[in-house]
Amino acid sequence: MLKHSLFIVWKPEYNLGIPIIDEQHRGIVSTINSLFYAMQNNHGESVLRPIIGMVTEYTLVHFDVEEGFLRGSGFTDFKQHQEWHNELKRKLSTVGRKSLLGRDPQEFLEFLKNWWIDHICEKDRIFRDYLFSQASQSPLL
Length: 141
Hints:
Low-confidence stretches: none
Number of helices: 4
Order of helices and strands: HHHH
Structural class: mainly alpha
Radius of gyration: 16 Å
Distance between the termini: 40 Å
Largest sheet: none
Number of strands: 0
Oligomer: single chain
């Protein structure tokens, strides 16, 4: 039996049904789990900076892809969703800096967990429902 568990276990209900978005979400979860694993092995501090860099870069790419879907579909709440992305990028930067200065990977891990729960599991479902209602009219899906 493995000594260490995952912080977030991927479940089928996390899928939005948009292959590239789902794959990117799994990548984000994998990064969160990597930080958790390192923390369990007393290496959280040493991987914090690279994890923050990975999450930051990954987030920029992921949000660009998501916003491309939204823009291309004529999503009516595009500006609101984009503002959620912008706010999340600001928080990511702030919490990342604070975690590094305080040498506190736990704070960053909690931020990532809350992001996962709020943004990916709730807010992304709003645009998913819209995209699927428009799927017959759009070549994006």
